[in-house]
Amino acid sequence: MANILVYALHYEGAINKNSLGAVSEAARLAGEIGGEAHAVVVGEGISDDVAAGLGAFGATKVFKAEAPEGLSQPVVDVMGKLFETGDYQYAIFGGGLLGFEVGAGLAARLNAGVTMEVTAVNVDGGQLVAERPILGDSSISTSRYKDRGIIIGRLNAFEARESGGSATVETLDVQLSSHAQQATMVQRGEQRGADVDIEGADVLVAGGRGLGKAEGFQLCEDLAGAFGGNSAVAATRAVVDAGWYPYAAQIGQTGKTVAPKLYLAAGISGAIQHKVGMQSSENIVAINKDANAPIFEFSDLGIVGDLNKILPKLTEAVKARKG
Ligand SMILES: Cc1cc2nc3c(=O)[nH]c(=O)nc-3n(C[C@H](O)[C@H](O)[C@H](O)COP(=O)(O)OP(=O)(O)OC[C@H]3O[C@@H](n4cnc5c(N)ncnc54)[C@H](O)[C@@H]3O)c2cc1C
How far apart are CA 85 and CA 173, in angstroms? Predict the structure, then answer.
């Protein structure tokens, strides 16, 4: 029987949303290959309730290991031990930097195949086959595994689905290797704006280099504020790299993938690497002073003009409408 092991990232009593998606996906795939989806949570003082909660997303067994949280090597040790002692053929990660690091370390430890930035997983002949976009997302490459496979999803690639199941919880006692104990968490840095939830927003006002300077984002924040409710401000990589807005708000190939009801792009050219992160939005509105900007090719509504004039008027119009 080929089981699938999922790393569920845990922080302050909650399991990360991408990890829940990975557990749901593993449960679906395990059902198709005749195995089970198990999850592992590594951290300090994790409650049984938090661990057992993964049963609702399809895990049948959850391992809890007491080890430093947020560091990759202890998780590699824990998952490596489970692979040694259990009947696992695959590991699935929901993505994110820690997932990349643990997945790569585990692949090296097990001499397994590894695929990163996976957007879909299928079953062929009882084996998992991972799909990963390549060449600026213009093509898909397919990975099969000779033996064990490590699959690391792109952020938000796997949807979290509650199946209403339940899981048994087992506490693991793992002796960490000496190198896994060399690093300690000194401090958790909170990135400015890291709490913006662009993935869950219904309305996103995204700003690009056309805003001219970091202060230009005030125009986007004013408009998002006027929409109110579940609205947020997002950004392109160009402005994140320039330090105008935090990485947590970046959309695209090397940022987040979003699908809000309304995506309003201000001063964004519409490069392919940006497009792949927002093309599934229900309604795309773009403001750009260049009538030939590529973003107009995939916008539902295009406004040609200066965003410095249009955004404030739009904000007033939304406020007036709401009032
Ligand atoms: C490997 C790789 C990964 C990448 N990953 C990402 C990613 O994840 N996300 C991402 O966004 N990019 C990514 N990029 C970068 C991407 O290729 C583009 O460079 C970037 O998206 C451009 O950002 P922009 O639209 O803000 O800037 P620009 O391309 O410079 O566009 C600015 C736009 O603003 C318009 N404008 C200027 N002034 C005004 C005004 N006053 N009013 C209205 N419009 C105005 C201009 O006409 C222009 O179209 C990646 C690139 C590479 C190579």
Answer: 13
> pTM for this one?
0.66
- Check pLDDT > 80 for residue 95: no
Residue 90 pairs in a beta bridge with 4, 149
Comparing 193 with 108, the larger pLDDT belongs to 108
pLDDT band per the 50, 70, 90 thresholds, residue 134: confident
- CATH number, domain 203-322, options 3.10.450.50, 3.90.230.10, 3.40.30.10, 3.40.50.1220: 3.40.50.1220
pLDDT digits (tens, 9 = 90+) for 269-313: 999 999 999 999 999 999 999 999 999 999 999 999 999 999 999
Residue closest via CA to ligand 1's atom 26 equals 208
* Rounded distance between C-alpha atoms, residue 237 and residue 268, angstroms: 10
Is 210 close to ligand 1, i.e. is its CB under 6 Å away? yes
What are the backbone angles phi and psi of residue 211, rounded to the nearest 5°?
-70, -15
Sign (positive or negative) of CA dihedral 122, 125, 128, 131: negative
CA of 31 to the centre of ligand 1 (A): 42
Q: Which CATH architecture has domain 3-181?
A: 3-Layer(aba) Sandwich (3.40)
pLDDT of residue 187: 80
Domain ranges, ordered by start, for the chain: 3-181, 203-322
Ligand 1 neighbour 255 (Cβ under 6 A): yes
